[in-house]
Amino acid sequence: MQELSAEKMPDYLEQIINTETSLYQLKKVKTKTEQRIQQLEYHIDHITKYPSSRLIGKPIYATLIKPIEPPKPKKEHNWVNHPTLFGMIIQGAVDASHNGKEKETYKQRLSQYYEDLDRYNKEKEEHDQAFEQQELEYKKKVQEANDRDEKDKHEYPILIQKENDFLKELDENIASTQETLDKLYGLDIIYPKYRNLVAMCSMYEYFVTGRVSQLKGADGAYNLYESELRQDLIIAQLDRIAAGLEKIKQNQYMLYSQLSKANEFLSSISDVAFQTLEVATDIRKTQIYTNSILSSIKSNTEAIKYISAANLLFN
């Protein structure tokens, strides 16, 4: 194992931390890109099987109840049931009175019927006009939905191809960043067990704050790191840390700072990548993705310079 002085150790650890953070960030961007591709593919498949227009409620015509014209009264002649002339006269008078009342009632009902019919005709005209407008709006919405689906069917495959192209570029940068990280660890300064972002951030803090001056020994960085792990003062699992970042701010500030920056960047990708497809959105997202790659290239370049200098020093 190679040895570095306490003064030189922070620079070395910082190169590792920056490279580890770039790798972490690139892998997260890759995951989000893969999710984006799945989302786009699902959308195309979904609108092909289930057009968006099917979700638009078709207007239903509600039939109004038309008034019924009252029946004309029938004249009653019950005098045939009376054999005597007097009886027939009396019955005829009763029938005439009854028929008169029936006639008057019929006139009233007929008058009410015409009023109801006039009101019905007006309401039906308004009702039919409103329904006609609803049908026009329905057809307009259906057409708009169909146009959106056709637009998406045309544009989403283009987006998917762009995402896949970017995915290839990401894979290349992940591979090159991993190679740079392997070379940094390959200087054989850090014991393999501690070659991870969490441990490197903690040990960086130990050195810059003067808590340790060496890696090995009872008072070294390895021992202090193990001690803090046993006391639950620090968390070693990155997935647990990512789920509760604020909890490590006090005891793992360097790691907190690195992950906060990375998560802020990743959040900006999420805000853009899963919005409705817009040309401006795609351009903005492309710029964000480009920045992630440029950041990793910068980190790799600085690390490679450091590795070259270190090889000269150790050899």
Q: Brief description of this entry?
A:
The chain has 315 residues and is mainly alpha-helical.
Distance N to C terminus: 13 Å
Q: Unreliable runs, pLDDT <50, ≥5 residues?
A: 271-281
Question: Can you write the helix and strand succession as a string?
Answer: HHHHHHH
| Percent strand | under 5%
**What would the average pLDDT be, to the nearest integer?**
79
User: What is the SS-derived class?
Assistant: mainly alpha
Rounded to the nearest angstrom, the radius of gyration is: 43 Å
Give an overview of the whole structure:
- The protein starts with 8 loop residues before the first helix and ends with a helix.
- It has a domain at 9-54 and 150-314.
- It is mainly α and 315 residues long.
- Residues 271-281 have low confidence and may be disordered.
- It is built from seven helices and no strands.
- The relative contact order is 0.15.
